[in-house]
Amino acid sequence: MKIGIIQQRNSNDVKANRETLISKIRKLAAMGAQLVVLPELHDSLYFCQVESVDNFDLAVDIPGKETQEYAAVARECGIVLVTSLFEKRATGLYHNTAVVFDTDGSVAGQYRKMHIPDDPAYYEKFYFTPGDLGFHPIDTSLGRLGVMVCWDQWYPEGARLMAMRGAELLIYPTAIGYESSDTPDEQERQREAWTTVQRGHAVANGLHVITVNRVGHEPDPSGQTRGIQFWGSSFVAGPQGELIYRAPNDSEDLQVIDIDMERSEQVRRWWPFLRDRRIECYGGLDKRFLD
Question: Which residue among 66, 77, 87, 113 is the active-site one?
Answer without folding.
Answer: 113
